[in-house]
Amino acid sequence: MSERAPPQRSGNSRPDELVFMALGGLGEIGMNVYLYGFGPPRARSWLMVDLGVTFPHESEPGADVVLPDLRFIVAERKNLVGLVLTHAHEDHVGAIIDLWPSLECPIFATPFTAGMLKTKVGEYGGTLSLPIKEVPLSGRFNAGPFEVEFVSVTHSIPEPNGLAIRTPAGLVFHTGDWKLDPTPVVGRPHDAGRLEALGDEGVLAMVGDSTNAMREGRSASESDVAKTLHKLIADAPRCVAVTLFASNVARVSSIAAACHAAGRTLVVAGRALHRIIEVAIETGYLPKGFTYLDQQRFSDLPRDKVVVLCTGSQGETRAAMARIAEDEHPDISLDKGDLVIFSSRTIPGNEKAVSRIQNGLARLGVDIVTDGEALVHVTGHPRRDELKDMYGWIRPKIAIPMHGEARHLREHAKLARACGVSETFTIVDGDVLKLWPGPAAVIDQAPVGRLYRDGNLIVPDAEGPVKSRRKLSFVGIAVVAMALSRRGEIIGEPGVVLEGIPAADRDGESMREIVLDAIDGTLRSIPPKRRGDHGMVQDAVLRAVRSAINEAWGKKPVVKVLVSVVDGRN
Question: Does the N terminus or the C terminus of the chain have fewer Cβ atoms within 10 A?
Answer without folding.
Answer: C
